[in-house]
Write a structure and sequence with these properties.
Layout: E1 7-20, H1 22-27, H2 30-48, E2 57-63, E3 70-76, H3 79-90, E4 98-99, E5 103-111, H4 116-120, H5 127-137, E6 146-154, H6 167-182, E7 189-194, E8 203-209, H7 212-222, H8 226-229, E9 232-234, E10 238-243, H9 248-252, H10 263-266, E11 310-311, H11 321-336, E12 350-356, H12 360-374, E13 380-388, E14 394-400, H13 403-413, E15 419-422, E16 429-437, H14 443-458, E17 463-471, E18 474-484, H15 487-494, H16 497-509, E19 515-519
Antiparallel strand pairs: 1-3, 1-4, 1-5, 2-3, 2-10, 5-7, 6-8, 6-9, 6-10, 7-8, 11-12, 12-14, 12-15, 13-14, 13-17, 16-18, 16-19, 17-18
Helix pairs in contact: 5-13, 14-16
Region (Disordered): 260-327
Keywords: Heme, Iron, Metal-binding
Biased composition (Basic and acidic residues): 274-294
């Protein structure tokens, strides 16, 4: 009997499609239309703000074509939450002008096809992987303007039966499918949810993008993958565009939505998070029961060595108040020593750092491809490869304006070749001086001085390892990673006379002040 992949479920999903009775709407008295708009707007607003539940997300879309006029999508922790949301709409005056031609019920799902370690022992899995998996099980509604929804199943025919294939064959096809999806990193974000036992197909696939042609392109390209060409069966497709609740009246009046009047609102959701806070930077597209996670831009565990995120110079992936206070105290102590411990780019940004033992040229080629897609998003600040001076490993550094964007990017970057660890998850206390920009004429001097300081570090109690890394595209852009047994060991070095002398010397050879970022 073929092996079934393990699955883990998260939030439940309702796609609630509505058609508007336009004749009844036109014939209704003005006061009835105003009441319907007011109650409909309040319903949509309250559900986008999650006033009906402790967790979740919601959004409304205008739908093109004859199959529906409106689509309301809800993510909620329980089926009961979805049932209540559906019935609460029926209690509005707007509902009297609509019918529900179809709907779709499903539950978000991750699978063991490509993440066996997670299912064997979730608690001991890499923290980046756990964060990634939780994000798949409890997704935020993407901010991209356009949406496409369709249901699909895996074929069970006499000649081609997905469920008769071996686990290995299925996993291999899904991995190939993921490679196609990676080409759309930065262009497409997806939510795939299982509907086995819930609805007429096996999965519901929801694609989001700022450009509707990207949706067409990814579906087209993936049709040629064996997993789709032989084993995919698809239902009807629905396409629409998101608009804010306050634009409901404009929509019913026949105006283009989102309107410019509510343009700022159109970029907000889930309690007003700015556009970009939830960019997934293209989680490539994939689907199949227990197979969907083979996509998501990660082709595999989507964050297995995950790159966590660091807010400015705060600990990676940990923004709890206690850690923030600790980080502030470190910066204050360094300031007393006349050491700048500011943020990586002098602003509030988030960094994710992963280490790879792959060939640097091969690694850079892969990163450059992802970076081209990342650049589609305004929240992307910088992604670069830094090579260690001794050539033992390279660091991939990716900087974003928002934490969720950095964490999503980490899912893609974690699937780069040779990834062995991520900054912030090593044992002990980590600190790294990011973006030491050296004056070109002093490049050799800086490298030589680092060698001297490195010898001193090797003799210091509590020191584990320190690497000098250079941007493969700009040798004067330096990245230093240093690992210590404990915070106090690192601080002892910063208080040393040798370090003070090095700082003074650095004022003459650096193009700007070094910025020290601390990792828990």
């Amino acid at each position: 009997m073929p092996e079934a992949p393990p699955t883990d479920e998260g939030w439940f999903v309702l796609h609630d499609f509505r058609t508007v009775d336009w004749d009844a709407w036109r014939d209704a008295p003005e006061r009835e239309r105003e009441r319907a708009i007011a109650e409909g707007t309040e319903y949509l607003r309250r559900h986008e703000e999650i006033a009906d539940s402790d967790e979740g997300d919601s959004a409304v879309f205008s739908v093109l074509g004859h199959k529906a006029d409106l689509l309301v999508v809800h993510f909620r922790p329980t089926l009961d939450d979805l049932s209540r949301a559906e019935r609460q709409f029926e209690g509005t005056a707007l509902a009297a002008f609509t019918e529900q031609p179809t709907s779709y019920v499903s539950v978000t799902e991750i699978s063991g096809y490509t993440s066996p370690d997670y299912f064997e022992d979730p608690e001991s899995a890499d923290a980046g992987l756990r964060r990634y998996m939780e994000g798949k099980k409890k997704p935020e509604m993407p901010e991209d303007e356009y949406v496409s929804f369709y249901p699909m199943s895996k074929r069970r025919g006499e000649e081609h039966n997905w469920y008769d294939l071996s686990f290995e064959d299925r996993a291999e096809m899904m991995a190939t499918h993921a490679e196609t999806g990676k080409e759309y990193a930065g262009k497409i974000e997806q939510v795939i949810a299982s509907s086995v036992g819930f609805d007429d197909y096996e999965w519901g696939v929801t694609l989001f993008s700022d450009d509707p042609t990207h949706i067409k392109d990814i579906v087209y390209d993936m049709r040629f993958d064996e997993v789709s060409s032989k084993y995919g069966e698809f239902g009807q497709f629905y396409v629409g565009r998101r608009f804010p609740p306050n634009d409901l009246g404009a929509y019913l009046e026949g105006a283009a939505v989102p309107t410019s009047e509510h343009g700022d609102e159109a970029g907000q959701a889930h309690g007003g998070h700015p556009h970009g806070d939830t960019d997934a930077h293209g989680e490539a597209h994939g689907h199949a029961h227990g197979d969907g996670e083979a996509h998501g831009g990660s082709g595999g565990h989507g964050g297995a060595h995950g790159g966590g995120s660091a807010h400015g110079d705060s600990p990676h992936g940990d923004d709890e108040a206690g850690d923030a206070d600790s980080d502030d105290s470190i910066r204050e102590e360094l300031a007393d020593l006349d050491i700048y411990a500011g943020k990586p780019h002098g602003e509030d940004v988030y960094a994710t750092v992963l280490y790879s033992e792959a060939d640097t040229d091969e690694l850079f080629e892969e990163v450059d491809g992802l970076r081209g897609n990342f650049d589609h998003y305004d929240t992307h600040v910088k992604t670069a490869v830094y090579e260690a001076q001794n050539g033992s490993r390279s660091a991939v550094v990716s900087i974003w304006d928002t934490q969720s964007a950095a964490e999503t990017a980490a899912g893609f970057l974690s699937e780069l070749p040779g990834i062995v660890s991520r900054a912030g998850e090593e044992s002990g206390f980590g600190t790294m001086g990011m973006f030491y920009t050296v004056k070109p004429e002093h490049h050799g001097d800086f490298v030589d001085t680092f060698g001297t300081v490195g010898d001193l570090l090797d003799e210091m109690e509590g020191h584990q390892e320190t690497d000098l890394m250079m941007n493969v595209e700009d040798e004067n852009d330096m990245f230093i990673s240093s690992q210590w047994d404990a915070r106090e060991d690192a601080m002892e070095f910063f208080r040393s006379e040798e370090f003070s002398e090095t700082v003074q010397w650095g004022r003459d050879v650096l193009a700007d002040r070094p910025r020290h970022v601390f990792l828990a």
